[in-house]
Write a structure and sequence with these properties.
This protein is an alpha+beta fold and 129 residues long. The chain is built from seven helices and four strands; from the N terminus they run H-H-H-E-E-E-E-H-H-H-H.
Length: 129
């Protein structure tokens, strides 16, 4: 398994309206990051403050580069204050396969049980205990 290369596939797939935030996260944003809090509406995140609708893409996603093959590299504008849903991703190899995650290598498909163990080690600091 490779380290994340910031392809953004997870952000594109889940960034529009498939994320949630805890009440604690929302309260933190209200106090310390009002720029983020303005995208929260009735406990739902990434609601466009102008339209009241969820945008198709995460409003904090920025494409920072494209290579000659058309591969995107992205940056999260709220990386240090992103919701826990983003912090704990990816959770499973099955989820990564479904999402087309570029962290996976051929050996991970051949032995998904070992790949899951490798992922669990890689993500140990990101997941709640």
């Amino acid at each position: 398994m490779k380290y994340c290369n910031s392809c953004g596939k997870c952000c594109v797939k889940y960034g529009g309206n498939d994320l949630s935030a805890s009440q604690h996260e929302i309260e933190y944003w209200e106090v310390f990051r009002p720029d983020i809090a303005k995208y929260v509406n009735n406990g739902k995140i990434w609601v466009d403050p102008k339209t009241g609708k969820n945008p198709e893409l995460c409003p904090w996603l920025t494409v920072v580069s494209d290579d000659e093959l058309g591969h995107h590299r992205v940056s999260c504008d709220i990386y240090l204050d992103r919701p826990d849903d983003c912090i704990i991703y990816p959770v499973s190899i099955a989820e990564m396969i479904k999402d087309g995650c570029e962290m996976l290598e051929a050996k991970d498909f051949k032995n998904p049980q070992q790949a899951q163990k490798d992922l669990d080690v890689l993500m140990v600091g990101s997941r709640p205990e």
